[in-house]
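Record 1 of the preview.
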Amino acid sequence: MPITPTPPDSGERTQTPADPALVRTFLLGLAEGLTASDETTDRTRAEVVAIARAYGVDDVDVIVLPTMAFVQTGRGETARMSLTSVRATFRFDQVAAMAALVRSARTAEISPEDGIRRLNEIGAMPPSRHWFIRTLGHALLVAGLALLIAPGWQAAVVGFGLGALIGVAKLTRSQTLGLILPVAASFVCALIVFLLAPVVAIGDPLRVLIAPLATFLPGAMLTTGVRELAAGQMVAGTSRLGAGVVQLALLAFGILAAGTVAGVGADDYVPREVQQTLPWWVAGVGLVLYGFGVYLQFAAPGRTYGWVLLALVVAYAAQQLGELLLGAPVSGFFGALVVTPVVLLIEDLRRGAVPSQLTFMPAFWVLVPGAASLIGVTEGAVEESAGIDDLSAAFVAVMSIALGVFIGSALYRFLHRGATGIADFHVDLPAFMGSSDGPGRSRLSGPDLGARPGPGPEPDRRTPPDPKD
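->
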């Protein structure tokens, strides 16, 4: 009777060199999956490079863009490059599964072949919740956010209905319909709100509109773009900012078109002062509803709800404190500065079981950097001077939040992991000229670049210096 051989442990797998093409494909799939998980480009590159070294691939270079990834293994004439375009956007359950795969790959616990199979399984994962539950989640999400942005029970009820409508529309799996969904959703929601405003006391129509359109607002995209620009990722940051501005313009166009159909005057596009008519504890109810709606709508794993709610409370409380100290335009700085270390700490405490994306994204929508931008773009199309003022305030809000995220993440990583050394600079020589891999010098340098090929100099047999020196 044949005996099934015992599979080798993780230590033996790391010692057996894998097929370079297979490893490169796995690394490229990881870069694509992390990008689809809305991970920043700099962190995606760092993860892929660290995983490559775990599999014994030291000569690796990675370029990550918001919609494309490149992975090169080897150097000089042995270099091989693979690239892929990124079209998918993962749900929270897929993000959590992707984080688990990354944890296994960091220590080479999974073979590249099995890792590729797992990537395909993650990409094909069906939603873990029924479509009705996800629609209800979106309705609760919008109702909770309405209680925070436009405090009023009428606004919350209207937001719940519009959230259910948008939740049904988000069930579409067509990429073509997905492209026109933001402008169509803004038109339909704005038309309903503008027609209800004279009949129902819903408060400021523009603020009521922000809640059902919150998941379309590019607040996180704009903030991440500014953060990537600050980190030196100019191509990725510029492209995200451009995409965010276009998204805002589409949403504003839908609102303006609905206003034209409903016969709305120019004064209705001017944001009104928020009047607090509900008790202070209603904000807590709004946060709980909002967090539970995010948990249902985006199919987040059950273990993450408490952590998401904690991040929401921290972000909202810090933002309110910042508004009291320095005013609304820069209140997001305090919220981002405080919540960023919190979500990174949660990720480290849970050893990656609660990825930072799952707690960052809902917190971003609470800080709402894109809300003021949408109001500014919409008003700017009607009244130029007021629109410029609102756009300036929106720019300050986005920059303050991005600066808070940047400083918060930098401080946390420095205190938790220490400073990193300066990257070494290397340029490979052609094969016929040999290579110079000596430490502390560029690979352009050599003993004698003009000399004829021949035996190299006698190797230095002295005791090598301690790398710590």
